[in-house]
Specification:
heterodimer; A: about 100 residues; alpha+beta; SH3 type barrels; 3 helices; about 20% helix; B: about 700 residues; Rossmann fold; 6-stranded mixed beta sheet; two-stranded antiparallel sheet; 31 helices; binds guanosine-5'-diphosphate; binds magnesium ion
Chain lengths: ~100, ~700
């Protein structure tokens, strides 16, 4: 309950407006082997900070390696390391296509 | 704040760094006492300390859990940040920041954060052996000049560069050096002052500590100030206002500032990366984490590992049993003149000690394989593959191996939970691990299935029942874990973010050492208490004593009478009404009570109660016949058989759930705390009773 409230107060979390088509792409939307670049990290409690401390910072190139056989978690590659994260966290990492960058 | 150096003259050096940078390996090098090493992030679950000798003087060394950031979001990272914040007992006089030479940019972020708190620091550039081997280089001298602290290239694994490190430690303990700190933007300084005014506290917080409150989502410094929960958010937000007004996100400002600083530091310093290693790892991963082959290989590996543990430990366990019963006999003959003493030593102490030592082969083997899986880096892949199955109920992929090994025995399984770095997930795994159907449950299943299911329903039904009983624990464990994490611990959704370590060849010495340490710790931590409990149970069965009941070749009838009139037997009589709704008579109740220290004794206890002596085997038809022949002597069912199918099912379900293993309880108490051992005992026993009653009552309607 308290957590939800914090979300709303937190300006860094985009308000869900239901405009699915305009929604920015996240790591969650990538297909295997697809490459992209991080544009923003959203905050959900301390999760955004944690992702950034692992090296997922805006501007960082990344490659979606594969998802686990059961669909979750995901394995991604950023320079210097392979990371494993659940879809719930992958949703916080906003990306743009490498080509567009 | 308590600095031990001031009082004892012994300085404390803390090792800190990202997970998997070789801190524990270095710790072992420095202290000589070997500590757990694993190619698996987060193997150091709590801080460990050891001692080294430097220029003839003793220095304490702390091995802290790996952390990526001081904005600690996971409780194990918090251990590290609390120690560094200097709010614990062991305020380090110096930190050695262990960094992966090929991932300097990321590693240095943590170093910058720590330095900002004003802790003296040395940087240990680890993995230099791999850097050199791949023809790369890092300019340590230049980096050291820029950072303002010693930067020592080392290889913790090969023990290279340690002389330089020792020298630097010695010098820095004399005259502390500090890493160059960043220039904070104007708005941060304003915000710090604003926050200081808002907090109105007597406790002095430094600027750096106030910055942590500003930058972190939920800083532990706020707990220190004792700020009421309701106002907390407002106070901190007021402090953050200047940063937000400057158009900067307070949660990312630190990272932005540090990144700029670090890119200046690293300009032209490093020509080292781990591309080749990652590429190789990626190729192996494409098979080992493959949708289909990955799972297949995983299943195969797990089968091999546990098959190996099972088959290899079997003969060793038999040998231990033989040795201990031989020992019992020899000592028994010697003590024969004093029967109480003889029984105490043989049936209590020696049997109890044998009951501890018999676990050793399994523990050794489990630790051997777990170390192997961790050091190669495969364990992280296993967690990756299995996470989905466990994530929904508050556990994570790392719970898989402990739960699987609990199928052999919960004791090594609970030891194996040490690999779970998230303390909540670890605790919940420990709580449900004893529900896994361990091998000690097999005898009672085999006895009752053989006596009551197979003759009536056939072999197919018998093996189906056995399979169902094996799965029962797991099927209950996961929803239970969900309930516990959701409603009892009220754990918020736990993340599962993990760096996948590169594949590495394990070092035989390290693997063997961990195996040895695992066994040793088990004996030290659990052994004595298990023996004490065995002696207590022995006394409850021995007293009040009936003449001749414990002599060799004692009459089975006398033995049975002894049990009946012992304290435990009387308790069985007294408690029988509690078990009546499950269809148990007093004999079954005594059997159940006598099995609380170790469930596998049920068969021999029943053997004694049914006047066959204690040496019956479950394969032996005699006990099954005796059970089938047993009739109620009085009461509403007078003359009817005691052991009907519903009763047999109820007993088996009871044994599936009940916490009848003192070794497991002791290990739980030792690993996560006595109250959790009590909790496990209470919930499992209640669950067992409820399930047994439910099974008896419902099946009685149909059968
Ligand atoms: N090649 C090489 N491997 C190392 C070195 N130091 C540590 N390792 C390996 O890195 C892995 C992680 O080490 P560990 O000490 O557990 O890291 P921690 O998580 O920081 O405590 C283990 O497989 C070590 O054998 C080193 O200097 N060179
Ligand atoms: Mg470690």
């Amino acid at each position: 309950m308290k957590k939800r409230l914090q979300h709303k107060m937190d300006p860094a979390v985009p308000q869900s407006t239901g405009e699915a088509s305009k929604r920015r792409r996240t790591v969650n939307d990538l297909a295997p082997c697809e490459q992209a670049k991080v544009t923003a990290i959203h905050h959900d409690e301390g999760m955004g900070q944690r992702l950034m401390s692992l090296g997922l910072v805006p501007g960082c190139p990344l490659q979606f390696v594969r998802s686990a056989p059961l669909g979750d978690p995901l394995m991604i590659k950023i320079p210097g390391c392979l990371l494993c994260l659940r879809r719930a966290e992958a949703r916080l990492v906003e990306i743009e296509d490498e080509i567009a960058a | 704040m308590g600095n031990r150096r001031a009082t004892t003259g012994i300085a404390t050096v803390a090792l800190i760094g990202n997970p998997n940078t070789g801190k524990s390996t270095l710790f072992n090098r420095l202290t000589g006492s070997r500590q757990r090493i694993g190619n698996y992030p987060g193997v150091t679950v709590a801080k460990k300390s050891g001692r080294m000798v430097l220029d003839g003087r003793e220095v304490d060394v702390l091995d802290l859990p790996g952390a990526y950031s001081l904005a600690a979001s996971s409780p194990d990272e918090r251990i590290s940040s609390d120690v560094l914040a200097g709010r614990g007992e062991d305020v380090p006089d110096l930190t050695i920041c262990v960094v992966d030479s090929r991932q300097l940019a990321r590693s240095l972020q943590l170093a910058c954060q720590i330095a900002d708190l004003g802790v003296p620091m040395i940087i240990a550039l680890n993995f230099m052996d791999e850097v050199v081997a791949s023809g790369q280089s890092v300019n340590a001298t230049l980096l050291s000049e820029r950072l303002g602290v010693p930067v020592i290239p080392i290889s913790a694994r090969k023990g290279q560069g340690l002389d330089g490190l020792y020298r630097a430690i010695g010098e820095c303990l004399q005259t502390p050096v500090f890493l160059r700190s960043p220039q904070w933007p104007e708005c941060v300084q304003t915000a710090t002052e604003a926050l200081r005014n808002q907090l109105k506290t007597n406790i002095h917080l430094s600027d750096a500590e106030l910055r942590r409150i500003l930058f972190d989502h939920r800083s532990s410094y706020l707990d220190l100030v004792g700020c009421p929960d309701g106002e907390r958010k407002q106070i901190v937000e007021k402090g953050r206002a200047p940063i937000r007004e400057a158009g900067i996100d307070p949660y990312s400002i630190e990272m932005v500032v540090f990144q700029k600083l670090i890119s200046e530091f690293l300009e032209g310093v490093t020509r080292a990366d781990n591309h080749a290693q990652i590429q190789m790892t990626g190729r192996i991963d494409s098979i080992l984490t493959h949708r289909f082959f990955g799972l297949l290989i995983f299943a195969g590996l797990m089968f091999l590992v546990f098959e190996a543990i099972y088959t290899l430990s079997g003969p060793a366990m038999d040998l231990i049993d033989t040795v201990f019963s031989w020992l019992g006999e020899v000592v028994g003959n010697f003590l024969a003149p004093v029967p109480v003493f003889q029984s105490l030593v043989c049936d209590g102490i020696i049997a109890g000690a044998g009951g501890v030592v018999v676990f050793l082969p399994q523990i050794f083997l489990l630790f051997f394989f777990v170390s192997l899986l961790e050091d190669t880096g495969y364990m992280a892949r296993a967690a990756f593959l299995m996470d989905k199955l466990f994530g929904w109920c508050g556990l994570n992929g790392k719970s898989f191996v402990p739960l699987l090994s609990s199928y052999a025995c919960a004791v090594p399984g609970i030891f194996a939970t040490r690999t779970i770095e998230n303390p909540r997930a670890r605790l919940v795994t420990v709580l449900v691990a004893p529900l896994m159907s361990c091998s000690a449950r097999l005898p009672v299943y085999l006895l009752l299935i053989g006596a009551f299911i197979e003759p009536v329903w056939g072999v197919g039904a018998a093996s189906l029942t056995l399979f169902a009983l094996q799965m029962l624990g797991l099927l209950v464990a996961l929803p239970l874990a969900w309930v516990v994490s959701r409603f009892i611990f009220k754990t918020p959704r736990q993340p599962f973010i993990m760096e996948m370590p590169p594949y590495r060849l394990p070092v035989a010495k390290d693997v063997l050492w961990r195996m040895w340490m695992g066994g040793k710790e088990f004996l030290q931590r659990a052994g004595t208490i298990i023996v004490v409990i065995s002696v207590i149970i022995w006394a409850l069965l021995y007293f009040p004593h009936k003449e001749g009941a414990h002599e060799d070749g004692a009459d089975p009838v006398v033995q049975a009478e002894q049990i009946e009139q012992s304290f435990l037997g009387r308790a069985g009589h007294a408690l029988q009404p509690i078990f009546a709704p499950a269809g148990f008579d007093w004999k079954i109740t005594v059997g159940v009570l006598a099995s609380f220290p170790a469930r596998e004794v049920i068969v021999s206890t029943l053997g004694i109660i049914y006047r066959l002596g204690g040496d019956v085997e479950d394969s032996d038809g005699a006990l099954a016949d005796a059970l089938r022949a047993e009739r109620w002597p009085d009461g509403p069912h007078k003359g009817q058989p005691v052991f009907t199918l519903p009763v047999a099912l109820a007993i088996m379900v009871f044994f599936a759930f009940c916490m009848q293993c003192s070794s497991t309880l002791v290990v739980i108490a030792r690993e996560v705390g006595t109250r959790y051992a009590v909790l496990t005992f209470v919930y499992m026993t209640t669950l067992a009773w409820v399930a047994a009653v439910a099974v008896y009552q419902t099946t009685s309607l149909f059968l």
